[in-house]
Design a protein that fits this description.
Length: 408
């Protein structure tokens, strides 16, 4: 049985003022093509379908069209759970219509999916809170999925019974998942878990959340440990962290598949893709990272020379750039114009003026009888260790003249 695992689509997300919607259309088309080329039997989207609780209309349309294409008109089950960027109510809203297309939306923890059968290929006949079992016509064994969408403290209290604030989330989830695993996940089927949580291996390296990502705070715990996963689970499909990584082991993979695009400059240079999982009952799951090529590359670049920066920008047009310029003087408007004309994907320009340290052994007196422009030059030299350029002096004189004319 083949499963395609993806997450963190963040549809509708912008990088500062720059829309990523066209890139998202392209990369989701690529994901659909991979699903068909690999002949996957099911798709799991592990949360953060949208970037905001109230996404733009274009993002909503893109989600529904993509999931319908992935489902192949009901032949292939698509399971999509809510992440911390999603509104659980919005994810659950289209459920009745979505099921006709083979799409299973799960917005809240402890959701119970009603049994149903699609005309073209699969049925859900065994369900309970937080669990579903899928029968696929091609296989004589079922696909079982324990599902836990993102849960904040309020949802945990309401759906998982976390009333005591001192109660540990890890223990709560461990007991909950183990109970389901013992009841429904024997060795006669494929057993998966999908959740949208900040999960790490106990004692393992701490993974940083991406810049701009809403940090997950679940109850009073910052993260969940992978040892809460029951032993019956062969593969855990995670969402939230945007870098591809397996925090489990080779026999029991616990995988973040990566986001399909780099959504912050902290992700510049990261490989983006989806994960194809091959799994049969009683055997360790095999998985493969399949890279995605769509979307603009993000770059954090630093230059000490304007000409070098302009040259690089001209040579790398189809990118999004955070540009740091190390200069001895403040950037002039002519320099800024050259930089912006060289590239239309500059998101941030960070000017860094390298100050010259001045060692002073005594406090200098200030001659207040000097002209205002000379006083300004002295102050500028004192604070920043350099002479103000001509453009700054022209601006100062313009301000002075405006004030003089106002007084007259």
């Amino acid at each position: 049985m083949k499963i395609l695992h993806t997450s963190d689509w963040h549809l509708g997300k912008r990088l500062d003022y720059f829309s990523r919607l066209e890139e998202q259309r392209a990369v989701l088309t690529e994901i659909c093509e991979i699903a068909d080329e690999e002949s996957v039997d099911a798709v799991i989207v592990a949360g953060d379908l949208f970037d905001a609780f109230n996404p733009p209309v274009e993002a909503v349309e893109l989600l529904y069209k993509t999931l319908r294409q992935l489902s192949r008109e009901g032949q292939r089950p698509v399971i999509a759970i809510a992440g911390n960027h999603d509104s659980a109510d919005r994810i659950d809203a289209p459920d009745v219509l979505a099921r006709e297309c083979g799409i299973i939306f799960i917005g809240y923890p402890q959701a119970t999916i009603q049994p149903f059968h699609t005309k073209n290929g699969f049925s859900i006949h065994a369900t309970t809170t937080g669990f579903l079992e899928i029968s696929l016509s091609r296989y004589n064994y079922p696909l079982r999925i324990i599902h836990t969408p993102f849960a904040n403290e309020l949802r945990l209290k309401q759906f998982l019974g976390l009333d005591d604030k001192a109660q540990q989330l890890n223990e709560l989830l461990r007991k909950h998942w183990l109970t389901i695993g013992n009841m429904y996940c024997d060795n006669q089927g494929v057993n998966l878990l999908t959740t949208h949580l900040y999960m790490l291996q106990r004692g393992g390296e701490i993974s940083e959340e991406p810049e701009g990502e809403k940090p997950i705070k679940v109850g009073h715990a910052d993260l969940v440990y992978s040892d809460a996963i029951p032993p019956q689970i062969q593969y855990t499909a995670l969402g939230h962290l945007h870098r591809f990584q397996n925090i489990g082991d080779e026999n029991r993979p616990v995988v973040y598949p990566s986001s399909p695009l780099a959504y912050s400059f902290s992700e510049a240079g990261q490989a983006k893709g989806v994960v194809i999982v091959d799994v049969v009952p009683e055997q360790p799951a095999q998985y493969q990272f399949v890279p995605l090529s769509s979307g603009k590359k993000l770059h954090r670049k630093q230059f000490k020379d304007i000409d070098a920066a302009v040259l690089w920008l001209n040579e790398n047009p189809d990118t999004l750039v955070e540009l740091t310029l190390m200069t001895d003087t403040f950037l002039s408007s002519a320099d800024m114009k050259r930089i912006h004309e060289a590239h239309d994907g500059i998101i941030h320009i960070i000017p860094v003026v390298q100050q010259t340290t001045i060692n002073q052994t005594h406090i200098q007196s200030v001659n207040l009888d000097q002209n205002i422009d000379v006083l300004f030059k002295d102050y500028f030299q004192h604070r920043l260790g350099q002479e103000p350029n001509g453009e700054l002096m022209d601006l100062l004189n313009e301000v002075i003249h405006c004030e003089t004319e106002t007084e007259d």
